Amino acid sequence: MSELTIQPARFRGEERIGLLVALALHVGVVALLLFQPVRDELVAIPERMTVSLASEVSLESTAPDPVAESRAAIAPEPSDEQAPPAEEQQLQAQPDPTRAAPDAPPTSRPTSRPTPTAASGGSSDLIGSDFLEGAGSSRETDAIGSEGARFGPQQKAALEAAITRELRPHWRPPSGADADKLVSIIAWKLNKDGTLNGRPRLVNQTGVNASNRPQANIHAERAIRAVQSAAPFGLPERFYSEWDDLVWNFDYRL
After folding, report:
1. Cα–Cα distance between 227 and 213 in angstroms, integer?
2. Beta bridge partners of 127
């Protein structure tokens, strides 16, 4: 059996040069990384921001109190006596050279057409320091600002949510067969301080059938008791005309 002899690898001249160049480049990169100056700057980490999502709309605004009636923007009324244009005043102030020589015939001078001013109806220079600013439409009040918000759909939804929040802790519907189908419609009146003006009464009741008829009277009585227990109601007095006389549906979803 013949023996296999391994000869050492031999590199040609071009291969040796390429190997040396690659080795030199690697050494240079390592040296560049080692001797690179270290930055002392620290990146400031921003503070955490806490975000809370509101699930209910408030009836009371946290903005400054609005005015009931805001003053309108009023400009001063122009006077009937209007001053002549500035160029005409300058021409009148200059002496007339034709009067220095009595025998000289009068000569005509070209006059330039005056530019329109506020007094002649050209621009809005009448709005000066005495212009009364305002945001509303009233010409009698001196209050400046935005008028108060009216009772719209958003305020109505917020009012209904506020009344439901006050009724829910006191509402205990009865249980039994088909009791969840009962709906007792209760009406009651309130004073401005949120107290009851009389006893709540049952207006109507729906969902009554043969199975839940024994619980119908209990359902209505518990709805009336919930209104009595929730009083006095803490509702905004400025919307009193919207909650002085209420009619409410009491069901298992309240």
Report:
1. 22
2. none
The beta strand positions in 16-104, using DSSP E, are none
Mean pLDDT of 220-237: 96
- Residue closest to 186 by CA, chosen among 176, 175, 196: 196
Beta partners for residue 151, in sequence order: none
Structure token digits, residue 233: 């109601």
Q: Give the phi and the psi of residue 205 in degrees, each rounded to 5.
A: -145, 130
Residue length of the chain: 254
Q: Which two tokens stand for residue 178?
A: 């088909």
φ/ψ bin of 196: left (φ > 0), alpha (ψ from -120 to 50), beta (otherwise): beta
- pLDDT digit string (tens) for 117-136? 444 444 444 444 444 455 55
**237: how many CB neighbours lie within 10 A of its CB?**
9
* Residue carrying structure tokens 């291969």: 15
- The pTM score is 0.47
Distance of alpha carbon 158 from alpha carbon 165, whole angstroms: 11
Token pair 């005409």 is found at 88
Tell me the average pLDDT of the chain. 73
User: Rounded to whole angstroms, how far apart are CA atoms 18 and 146?
Assistant: 82
Element (H, E) at 91: helix 86-93
Q: Measured between alpha carbons, how far is 194 from 231 in angstroms, rounded to an integer?
A: 7
Task: Name the percent of the chain in helix, strand, coil, to the closest 5.
Answer: 30, 10, 60
Contact 217, 139 (CB under 8 A): no
Quick one: 25 exposed, middle or buried, by C-beta within 10 A (0-12, 13-18, 19+)?
exposed
What does the alpha-carbon distance between residue 93 and residue 108 come to, in Å, rounded to a whole number?
17
